[in-house]
Amino acid sequence: MYLRNFDRFFSSLQWQILLTTAQIARNLNLRAFAVGGIVRDAIAREELNSLSFPKDLDLVFDGAEQAGIQVAIALHESFPESKLQIHEKFQTAELLWQDFAMDMATARCETYAYAGANPQVTATTIEEDLWRRDFTVNALAVELDPNFGTKGEVIDRFNGLKDLGNKQIRAIREDSFAEDPRRLFRAARFAVRLDLAIAPETHSEIIATTSSGIHDAIGGARLRSELLYTLAEPRSAEMFELLENLGALRCIHPDLHLPQNPHNSFHRQWRRSQYWLNLLNRLEGKTYSPLQLGVELLLSYLPHQISTKLDLGLTPDQKIRQVKLAELLTELPNLINLSLKASEITQNLQKFDTQTAILAASQCETPQRRIIWRYLTQWQNVKSPLTGADLKKLGYDTGKQMGTILQHLRWATLDGAIETKDEAIAYLQFRE
């Protein structure tokens, strides 16, 4: 297959960069290739006639050790507004622009000391580099040409074009999932994002791998990154539901399962938490992280005695929140059954931070959710009509007693007993 009109899938800046990259590679006696998603999506967009530009451009260079780094350094000199990051151990570099990133890799083969380990890298040819990739639809490549953009013909060693046409995702080789558990998450992401079915033999291998327990509770920064990558996807809830069906959530912990209630599914809980978080970020001017909250939501389906001990880089605050969330979910039914006043509910809920309240609201029943919503948007913001300065003018001494008085005035305001300063003064006189 020839990939024609490759330029129309990129912005003018991206195309200029690609042509410059191809020329630099030629000057260094290297070959430059667009690989993986950049080729796959160009083919898919050709059929859909989409005009969106890619955010990630993956290039591979063969012909020398550290070839990708050599080209990246020279390209950075031509585009100094970009930010250069070099990963010498893996023979890769990354150039970052404001709206997109370019990964510059040396064609390489990888060996793993053990399952889930970081790979040991040696330079090789583009043909061998494609062999190390995960799925046939991601092992497509096209050579770049400084005059015409590409040489046109798509390199397809594993029938990726056929799989793409048949809407299937297929592993290139056996044991790839045992070799690298990240591929379990990548399979789910690509399947959902591109509306692909997992090929039967690949599905069977995934099930066999997860059932073996080889990747149970593997933890580590790489697993955490996969969770964040997946949570960042627009259809992330569908991806996690697919991961559940594939048994891949065992990578987090063998006992982790998503809620099975269709009326309170993970999809619904995730959507609620994101909506509430974004709204409260705007109302409060805060910057709570939706992805970090997503990790906490997933872990909350485990007992906190387990979730807080997993090797997933949880901060002390996040570990405390797992414990507090379990406590709040236990207390919530009582806030309904006892018909407490607004002040009494506020006293109960103010023991928990905003993120804990959002996590609880995403999981609880509608009446409890309404109470948390009123607390977060109304009750927690209610203050006493009188300030400390007002009380001082009325003859009250500063100190602990004044704080107690202000608290009682706040409770009375929440319960509708007082509204104005005059009513607050009268309330104090009556109490005396």
From TrEMBL:
- Tell me if Nucleotidyltransferase is a UniProt keyword of this record: yes
Q: Which residues form the Poly A polymerase head domain?
A: 33-170
Any one GO molecular function term:
tRNA binding
For this protein, the record's InterPro entries field holds: NT_sf, PolA_pol_head_dom, PolyA_RNA-bd, tRNA_nt/polyA_polymerase
Give start and end of each tRNA nucleotidyltransferase/poly(A) polymerase RNA and SrmB- binding domain. 197-256
Q: What does the similarity note say? A: Belongs to the tRNA nucleotidyltransferase/poly(A) polymerase family.
Descriptive protein name: CCA tRNA nucleotidyltransferase
Q: Which organism is it from?
A: Pseudanabaena frigida
